[in-house]
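Encode chain A's predicted structure.
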Amino acid sequence: MRFAELTDETWPLFERLFGPGGVQGGCWCAFFRLTGPEFKQAGKDGRKAYVRGEVAAGKPLGLLALADDEPVGWVAVSPRLDNPRLAKSPVAASPGDHTGVWSVTCFYIGRKSRRQGLSAALLRAAVDFAAGRGARVVEGYPVEVLGKRPGADLYHGTVSVFAKAGFELVERRPPSRALMRFRVSADENAGRR
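Encoded structure for chain A:
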């Protein structure tokens, strides 16, 4: 297993993983990067074009998990300020300066690769990726799995996966979500540059 940043070079792998529909009704992982009206107006093709443009501009969007050079998973991780929808989300609300704060907003694991610990591996890679680019904090907004599996919301990740990766619980957010943070030490930032 290796992890690769989404770039012009890896874009075809991202397209292959997401398929012609762009996952989740044509989201193309643009949900948090666009405001509500922008997301709706763009439609599936517009969202794909938007994400493609962000990649072409060199913006960090996330990492692909590759097994034998085949895409099997995805984690969206980027500066919080590049995700305007987070500012209006009651789950992601956090006061203060968000400079240096990166957000893990989405996981997608291909059907054949699920239930193999890939989310945890992607999360660890996302923290390393953000730290290597100067993040001081990495945030996540996972789901608390209590009894019945919240299938549609699992793209946020689970509290248990974030906790095992060293994220601290900041606050539980009703009904079954949490704000969690990983504080990147100066040594971690320095060692990754």
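The mean pLDDT is 90.
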